[in-house]
Design a protein that fits this description.
alpha+beta; nine-stranded mixed sheet; five-stranded antiparallel sheet; elongated; binds glyoxylic acid; binds manganese (II) ion
């Protein structure tokens, strides 16, 4: 059984070419459903056709490129990821998994290798969830996990999903037809940059992902009393921003000092009325906790709510906490982890096992098929930033492991 080598230069060109679409000096702006996302998708579809894939768009806007295998009784092995970016994002997050998958297809094509299984390359819609309350949109649609709230949600511009999906060739009226069943796919493999510091620090080229983080997210609304900043004595204030600050510090404490869950973040906040000479009356902010254990997420929520109640009494403010749809952690089976380690061994690459702190389409796909993830180092562990960088060598090594993983999996039924 041959294990052909991928072409690192060609892969790097693919990354550079797609990386030009949406590139600005403040980072990548290929946010889902934007004109740049549409352009990036068209570019990717064109590449898929060139490598001999038959392309269709499912009702959720997912791009599916497929190719027959030599044994008609077998079901497809899928590779994929996403090409949407966060605002001011990086060039590798998601993109590597898609361009890596297409490099695997090109290598098979030039070596005249037909796999036993049919193959699919999947490009999922709005993995980042930008604009909408919930992430992993396309992969959750494919795994049948959309909630009624997903369908009625409007984005930050007040535009609903039906209109957004039209822009990318999806079909809201048949959205549930995007769902596939357990038994439709043999496996789903995703190559991704680590987005954290572990592999870069240890100098290990390949990460074998052991599980993907879950997330508990909330919208918090603190209501105090807006009042005159010059005349209201300090002891008589109900300053919503001060109380919100105490809550924000608690998010930090829950994850660091108390070690209840792995990480906690407040990434968005708005102050009202947001004027220099007014004691803030209202502050709204987001909270997310992440951990690979559901019990840790629950415990973080309990502590956060307990502290918010305490604060209501001490500060004389009201705190409303609305839970956004949670994402459950997805463990990766030891069988799949071992297959990734074996694939890394084909070309002699060292591995390290680690959990993923970022969310990925693979965690939604885990509901309907076997999943495995291959990580490559992120220089200085930076991601969701214009400084996101993985070396051409790291990208090539990860893509090589993805191809070897595919070929090993293809030997099994
Ligand atoms: C997705 O990129 C995440 O926020 O983990
Ligand atoms: Mn990603
Ligand atoms: Mn991301």
């Amino acid at each position: 059984m041959p294990f052909p080598k991928i072409n690192p230069l060609r892969l790097n060109h693919s990354l550079e070419n797609l990386g030009r679409i949406g590139h600005t000096e403040n980072g990548m702006q290929r946010v889902a459903f934007s004109a740049l996302d549409v352009e990036g998708r068209a570019h990717t579809i064109e590449m898929m056709r060139r490598v001999g894939l038959t392309v269709r768009i499912d009702p959720a806007g997912n791009i599916i490129g497929s190719k027959d295998g030599s044994e008609s009784s077998l079901i497809p092995i899928a590779l994929g990821s996403h090409i949407d970016t966060v605002p001011n994002g990086g060039k590798y997050d998601g993109t590597l998994g898609v361009m890596g998958a297409l490099e695997c297809m090109l290598t098979l094509q030039e070596q005249n290798i037909t796999t036993r299984h049919p193959l699919e390359v999947l490009v999922f819609t709005n993995e980042e969830g930008t604009g909408f309350p919930h992430w992993l949109f396309g992969s959750r649609a494919m795994s049948g996990a959309l909630s009624p709230e997903d369908l009625t949600a409007v984005d930050h511009d007040g535009v609903g999903l039906e209109t957004r999906l039209q822009a990318i060739g999806g079909d809201f009226s048949h959205i549930h037809d995007a769902a596939r069943s357990p038994g439709d796919l043999c496996a789903y493999f995703e190559l991704h940059i680590e987005q954290g510091p572990a592999l870069d620090r240890s100098g290990t080229p390949i990460g074998v992902v052991t599980g993907i983080t879950g997330r508990a997210a909330f919208e918090v609304d603190v209501k105090g009393t807006a009042n005159h900043a010059g005349t209201t004595p300090m002891g008589l204030r109900h300053d919503a921003l001060l109380s919100a600050s105490r809550l924000i510090l608690t998010v930090e404490r829950i994850a660091s000092e108390m070690e209840i869950c792995r990480v906690g973040t407040v990434g968005r906040a708005s102050i009202s009325p947001n004027a220099t000479n007014v004691v803030p009356g209202n502050v709204a902010f987001s909270v997310e906790f992440r951990d690979v254990q559901s019990t840790a997420l629950k415990a973080a929520e309990v502590e956060f709510r307990r502290y918010a109640q305490e604060l209501e009494r001490s500060d004389g403010v009201s705190v409303e906490i609305n839970a956004l749809p949670p994402t459950t952690p997805a463990p990766i089976t030891s069988e799949m982890q071992d297959l990734v380690a074996q694939a890394a061994g084909v070309h002699g690459l060292a591995t390290e096992r680690l959990p993923s702190g970022a969310g990925h389409d693979a965690q939604a796909m885990a509901a309907i098929t076997n999943v495995a993830m291959v990580f490559v180092p992120s220089v200085n562990g930076i991601s969701h930033s214009p400084l996101e960088f993985s070396t051409p060598q790291a990208c090539a090594e990860g893509t090589q492991v993805l191809l070897d993983l595919l070929l090993l999996a293809d030997q099994r039924d």
